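User:
I would dearly like some help making sense of a protein record. Take your time, and here it is.
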Amino acid sequence: MAQGKFSEKIIRLRCSACKHVNYTTRKNKKLIERKIEFKRFCRWCQKHTFHKEAKK
């Protein structure tokens, strides 16, 4: 995949409870250096849990 001139990278979000990778999103690594965390619905846990940035 060509990197291009954009600083946004596609990251995966992993459920903090069951460790399944449920979502993908984009993150500008120049502006946001920390790992991001969202509260999203996990279809395996059947509830809203925190989803953190996962390694590739």
Observations:
- The chain has one domain: 8-54.
- The mean pLDDT is 89.
- The two ends are 15 Å apart (CA to CA).
- The chain has no helices and four strands.
